[in-house]
Structure formats: structure tokens, C-alpha cells
């Protein structure tokens, strides 16, 4: 019979501890943990869209299905990073807000999110796609499959202006074209106030180049920012607003796209171009500003860039049927109307646009007019899987032109070359 | 006790640490190395293709060069500032304990908060710094646009100066006062004493500070990500930021893994070189 002394007990105890720790770490999840996980429903959402209207739907959904609702909110770049890591690991959420039309297609073609057509076809009451504005649907489809359901539909290109500042400078109407915009920007620039404010986020350049009939991409032909003369005119005009006419401060390179809105709210800018998501922060943060929201400017043409998020279901979601059910509740017209009332957000449903409350709202009427002039998106770019990489190249080029005063023609040429190579 | 039993006991005590490092360090590094041998799809084997690609990638080369510039700037300025503060606060000044504590606060603050704080302070339009400059009649700054990399160096130095100061303080307090007294009797002035006694005897501390500083600056990601997003253009897209973009934006984990292994090699080589130089200097 072996003898046990204090050292032997110590060795045995240590060995058991190590084996126990390793065993626990390497063992599969316990049934109880799995059960707990199955009762948790995880949603990734944009931090700026955490409206009460959605919260009520999500809370009720949790109660109806006895689920623990894990509603996680992120800034868009962080959401994208987390989602990419999740897709790699296979540990995915149950429902995800899509940053913009086309992102779902990119994920879907890589097998990471589900095509939702069968769900929609089996749920006639939901009204997809019949009750949705075409541009919001088409931008999310590729080769007959739809990878996300539109949640919001907005236009980037609305002109925000401070009525008081324009009036003090002798203008009783907002500008309608680039010449008038420059004239008013010059007239309202004084002391610490800029006539306008440009954004460091490159997606905010889209309305300007769209207004010169420029397409960001034609993936099929491997072309970017064409026609070249229109792109040159648009970006040169933007650069001149800062460095020649000095009616806009050079934006600061950050991950925050709310710089112009903050300047406007602080009464340091008279005008800026953005989308409906800035109406709420201005009205709530600076109620003393007499805010005007006008339709997009006309350059060679009147145009705006389509914006707005969607909803997508990861391919490895625990129960896609349950995820679809929540989509139908979040995107119901009464929830859309509640979110609009709460935050001024515009929506993709035809029945939403036809609602008397929407039709009677002047800001929403302006948004509706803007939606009619949104430029078409290049679906093939999303399908190429290279959209994010090319957008990063565009960000670099845009900031070099707008912040660092790089020569526009050469920078655009370099961007075209790099983007073509990436594709 | 036999040698065998002794060895067994030693291994039992070592096992937790070995497992810890194997599972949480060496296994991921090995996995990283393996991933770096595959294409972005994670299936096609490309051998050393991702590694050779890095040497011809202008974005990667740019990010590597500005990272070296950032590391050099941060090390030189940070060491000088930390040493200066340590020398000052090593004197018998009233309230020096309070100053030492206050100077350490930035180091103890989360890098996210430091980044957001400075982004807001330096904002040319709504930042507090320009308000102060305007109040005293000076022109406003636009450093985040005109000198973005130098600004990031400045923020890093501000954030880490307290820690460097503490290390140098410990080194200073390890120098016997006898040396200074002897030098004073021999007629050496303050500068002479500083360069002839303080600097040489602080060499081990300086070596430690520079190695730790080099490793952390070559891996810097959070500050440029939060303050400038790598911009304007790619002016502050340091190597780790570039690596992040390749992985999470371009979704090319094979190439990103190769880049991270290359960074590991660079850090290893530079750290070993510093150690050798330090050893020679001390010898």
C-alpha cells in the first residue's frame, strides 16, 4: 500500500487542479449552457437607430417567445468588424442591421447570410416586395435573390440650412443649384461662421458627384468615378469650397461622420449636405435653430445618394424562422410610422409614404422628393466582394483631396488605377 | 527523493504555466503562421506568397515606414520627457508625491478615453484648444490635418510619460548619493554630474524603457484608429491599423496573418538588436 505524505497530497492536488482546469476548458458546453444559449436572441444594431419604437417590439418579442433579448448596439465600423469576426468563428447573432444596401448581397454571396425570398414568398401579409419602393429592393437583389429587407430608406443629399443665417445675409430661399449654393455660402461666411461644412466621410461626396452624373463604379467595365470630367468638376468644386473660396473648414479625419451636423448645431455653419438622420439631433440639440431642409442641389442634374439600412439573417442563426418573424414585426408599417414620429426617419414602404401623417409632414415630403432623384447603385460592385476594399481606397483619395489639398485630377487617376487593380 | 521524483514535481509545478503559454500564446501564433500560408478564402495554399506580397505592397510599405517614424519619435521624445520629469521630481520639492501621482493618471486612463479626449480637444472647429488659443489672441491649430502623425506621437508621449517617469525614478533612486557627493567635491557641476553619473548609471533602465516602448509603439493600433481613423488619407495608418484593415475590411485573413507574423519578426529582431547594443554598452 503506498504511503501518502504532505508532499504527495500537494502533488496530487496540483495535478488534479491542472487536469480539471484543462478538462473544463476543453469540454463542450454543458446541456444547461446550451439551453441558456438557445433562449438568448442576439441582435446587432446601429447605435444611432436604437429607437423606442424598436425597443418595444423587441421587448414584446422576447416576452412572447420566452427569450432573453440581447440587443447589442454598435457604431457602423465596429458592427462590421464584429460581424466579420463572428462569420469567421461561426458564432453569429440571430439578426443583424445591414449598414447599407448591397452589404447583405456581399455577405450572402459568401454564404454568410440567407436569401430571404422564400420567407417573403410564404408571408404574403408582410408585403415584400410589393409594398416596397423599387430602388430599396433592387439594390438588395442579385441574380434573383434578396439578401436583406429594407428597414430605412433615406437620401444623402438633403440641404440643411439655418433660416436665420440665410435671412440675415439677405436670402429668403435656400439654394437650388451649385452657383446659388456658393453665392449663399460666401455671403454667410463671417467671423467664426462658415457658409457650409463638408464631411470627412467619403460617402458624403456622393451627392456632389452624382449631381455631375458621375457613377462611383461600373464593376462590369472595371471603371470608377466616370465620366472623368464630371468627377473632376465635382471634387474640384468641393476642394475649392475649402481652399479657394474658404467657405467651409477642412474637415478633420475621424471615424465620426457627424462633424458638419455638430458645427451646424453650434451655429458655426450655415449649411451642410446630409440625410434625414441629422434632423433629430439638430432639433433636439439646438431647438432654437430655425432649421430648413431642402431638396438636393442641381449641378448638371439634380441627384442624391441612396442610403438606409436593412435587416439580414446570418446563415448560421439558431432559428432563421424566428429571426424572420422579428423582421416582419420590426418592419411593420405601424412600427415604421412610430419610428418616423420619434426620430424623423424615412422608410421604404409605399404604405408608409401614403400615410396621411407622412404626407402632411414638410420635412418628410422633402425626403420623398429627394428619394425620387437618388442615383442608381452598382449592384455588381457589392457582388464582387471587393466593395469594402474599394471604399477604403476611396476614403484615402477623398481625404487626400479634401483635407490634405492633394491635386484632384492626379488623385482621382490614382484611385481609378488602384480600384481597378483591386477589382 | 530520486532525481525522477524531483523532475516530476518540477514538471507538475511548471505544467500550468506551460499549458497557459502553449494554449494562449504559442498555439495562436502557430495558427497565425499557418493561416498566413493560405489565400483569403482560407482554402487555397499559397505558401510564402502572402509574405512576399507584403514586400511589394505600397500601402504596407507606407504603413511600415510611418510606424518606424512614429516609434522613433515616440521613443526619443517619450524617453526625454520621462527622464526630465523623473529628474525634476526626484528633487526634494514640495508636493512631489502629488505631482508624481497626477502625471501617472494619463497612463492609467483607458486608451479609448485618451483618444476621444484628445480628438475633442484638438478639433479645429469645436475643440477647447482652439477656443483657448483664440481667447489669448493666437491663431487656431489644425494639427490633426496638417501634422497628424506628429500629433499622434504627442498624444502617445503625453499618455506614457508618467509610466516612463516612474521607471526612471526607480532607476534614479538606485544610484548611490555617494557618487554625486564625490563628484561635487571634485567640482563637477549639475550638467556634468547628469551626463557623467546619471545617464550612464541609468543605462539599464533606458534599455528597458526603449525595448518596452519599441514593442508597444510598433504594435500601436488604438490611438490612430480612434483619433484619426488612420487618416487623413493614410497619413496615420500605422502597420497594425493597416493589418486591421486588411483583415476586417478587405476580409483577407491570410494576408493579414502573414503581415502579423512579419511584425512579430521585426519586433523580435529590433528587440534583440537593442539588447545586444545595451549589453555592449553595459560591458
TrEMBL record, chain B:
Keywords: Cell membrane, Membrane, Transmembrane, Transmembrane helix, Transport. Its main location: membrane. InterPro entries: ABC_transporter_permease (IPR051393), MetI-like (IPR000515), MetI-like_sf (IPR035906). Gene3D superfamilies: MetI-like. The keyword Zinc does not apply. GO terms for cellular component: plasma membrane. It comes from the Bacteria. GO terms for biological process: transmembrane transport. Residues 64-274 form the ABC transmembrane type-1 domain. It is found in: Cell membrane. The chain crosses the membrane at residues 7-29, 64-89, 101-121, 149-172, 193-215, 253-273. PANTHER family: ABC TRANSPORTER PERMEASE PROTEIN, DIACETYLCHITOBIOSE UPTAKE SYSTEM PERMEASE PROTEIN NGCF. This is Sugar ABC transporter permease.
Amino acid at each position: 500500500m503506498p504511503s501518502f505524505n504532505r508532499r504527495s497530497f500537494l502533488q496530487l492536488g496540483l495535478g488534479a487542479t491542472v487536469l480539471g482546469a484543462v478538462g473544463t476548458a476543453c469540454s463542450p458546453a454543458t446541456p444547461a449552457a446550451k439551453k441558456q444559449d438557445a433562449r438568448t436572441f442576439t441582435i446587432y444594431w446601429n447605435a444611432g437607430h436604437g429607437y423606442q419604437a424598436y425597443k418595444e417590439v423587441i421587448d414584446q418579442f422576447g416576452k412572447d417567445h420566452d427569450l432573453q433579448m440581447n440587443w447589442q448596439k454598435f457604431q457602423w465600423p465596429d458592427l462590421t468588424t464584429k460581424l466579420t469576426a463572428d462569420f469567421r468563428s461561426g458564432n453569429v447573432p440571430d439578426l443583424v442591421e445591414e449598414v447599407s444596401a448591397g452589404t447583405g448581397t456581399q455577405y450572402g454571396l459568401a454564404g454568410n447570410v440567407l436569401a430571404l425570398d422564400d420567407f417573403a414568398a410564404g408571408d404574403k401579409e408582410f408585403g415584400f416586395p410589393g409594398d416596397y419602393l423599387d430602388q430599396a429592393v433592387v439594390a438588395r437583389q442579385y441574380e434573383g435573390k434578396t439578401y436583406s429587407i429594407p428597414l430605412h430608406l433615406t437620401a444623402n443629399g438633403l440641404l440643411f440650412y439655418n433660416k436665420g443665417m440665410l435671412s440675415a445675409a439677405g436670402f429668403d430661399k435656400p439654394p437650388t443649384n451649385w452657383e446659388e449654393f456658393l453665392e449663399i455660402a460666401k455671403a454667410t461666411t463671417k467671423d467664426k461662421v462658415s457658409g457650409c461644412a463638408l464631411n470627412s466621410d467619403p460617402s458624403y461626396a456622393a451627392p456632389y458627384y452624382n449631381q455631375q452624373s458621375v457613377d462611383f463604379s461600373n464593376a462590369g467595365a472595371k471603371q470608377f468615378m466616370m465620366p472623368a470630367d464630371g468627377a473632376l468638376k465635382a471634387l474640384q468644386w468641393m476642394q475649392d469650397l475649402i481652399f479657394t473660396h474658404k467657405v467651409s473648414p477642412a474637415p478633420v479625419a475621424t471615424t465620426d461622420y457627424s462633424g458638419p451636423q455638430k458645427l451646424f448645431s453650434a451655429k458655426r455653419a450655415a449649411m451642410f449636405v446630409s440625410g434625414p438622420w441629422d434632423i433629430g439631433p439638430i432639433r433636439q440639440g439646438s431647438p432654437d435653430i430655425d432649421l430648413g431642409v431642402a431638396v438636393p442641389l442641381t449641378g448638371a442634374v439634380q441627384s442624391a445618394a441612396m442610403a438606409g439600412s436593412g435587416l439580414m439573417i446570418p446563415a448560421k442563426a439558431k432559428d432563421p424562422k424566428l429571426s424572420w418573424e422579428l423582421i416582419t414585426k420590426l418592419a411593420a408599417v405601424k412600427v415604421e410610422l412610430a419610428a418616423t414620429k420619434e426620430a424623423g426617419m424615412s422608410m421604404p414602404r409605399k404604405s408608409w409614404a401614403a400615410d396621411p401623417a407622412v404626407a402632411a409632414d414638410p420635412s418628410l415630403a422633402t425626403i420623398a422628393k429627394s428619394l425620387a432623384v437618388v442615383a442608381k447603385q452598382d449592384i455588381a460592385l457589392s457582388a464582387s466582394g471587393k466593395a469594402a476594399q474599394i471604399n477604403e481606397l476611396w476614403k484615402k483619395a477623398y481625404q487626400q483631396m479634401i483635407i490634405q489639398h492633394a491635386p484632384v485630377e492626379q488623385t482621382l487617376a490614382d484611385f481609378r488605377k488602384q480600384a481597378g487593380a483591386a477589382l | 527523493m530520486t532525481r525522477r521524483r524531483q523532475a516530476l514535481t518540477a514538471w507538475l509545478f511548471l505544467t500550468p504555466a506551460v499549458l497557459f503559454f502553449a494554449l494562449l500564446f504559442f498555439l495562436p501564433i502557430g495558427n497565425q503562421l499557418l493561416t498566413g500560408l493560405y489565400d483569403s478564402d482560407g482554402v487555397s495554399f499559397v505558401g510564402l506568397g502572402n509574405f512576399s506580397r507584403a514586400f511589394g505592397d505600397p500601402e504596407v510599405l507606407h504603413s511600415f515606414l510611418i510606424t518606424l517614424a512614429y516609434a522613433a519619435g515616440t521613443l526619443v521624445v517619450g524617453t526625454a520627457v520621462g527622464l526630465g520629469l523623473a529628474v525634476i521630481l526626484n528633487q526634494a520639492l514640495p508636493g512631489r508625491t502629488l505631482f508624481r501621482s497626477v502625471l501617472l493618471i494619463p497612463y492609467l486612463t483607458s486608451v479609448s478615453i485618451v483618444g476621444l479626449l484628445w480628438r475633442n480637444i484638438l478639433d479645429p472647429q469645436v475643440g477647447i484648444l482652439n477656443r483657448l488659443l483664440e481667447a489669448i489672441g493666437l491663431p487656431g491649430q489644425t494639427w490633426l490635418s496638417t501634422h497628424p502623425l506628429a500629433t499622434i506621437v504627442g498624444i502617445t508621449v503625453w499618455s506614457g510619460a508618467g509610466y516612463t517617469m516612474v521607471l526612471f525614478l526607480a532607476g534614479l533612486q538606485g544610484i548611490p548619493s555617494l557618487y554625486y557627493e564625490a563628484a561635487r567635491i571634485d567640482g563637477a557641476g549639475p550638467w556634468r554630474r547628469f551626463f557623467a553619473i546619471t545617464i550612464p548609471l541609468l543605462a539599464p533602465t533606458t534599455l528597458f524603457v526603449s525595448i518596452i516602448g519599441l514593442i508597444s509603439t510598433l504594435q500601436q493600433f488604438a490611438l490612430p484608429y480612434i483619433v484619426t481613423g488612420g487618416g487623413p488619407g493614410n497619413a496615420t495608418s500605422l502597420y497594425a491599423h493597416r493589418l486591421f484593415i486588411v483583415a476586417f475590411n478587405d476580409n483577407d485573413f491570410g494576408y493579414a496573418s502573414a503581415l502579423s507574423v512579419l511584425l512579430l519578426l521585426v519586433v523580435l529582431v529590433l528587440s534583440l538588436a537593442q539588447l545586444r547594443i545595451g549589453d555592449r554598452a553595459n560591458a
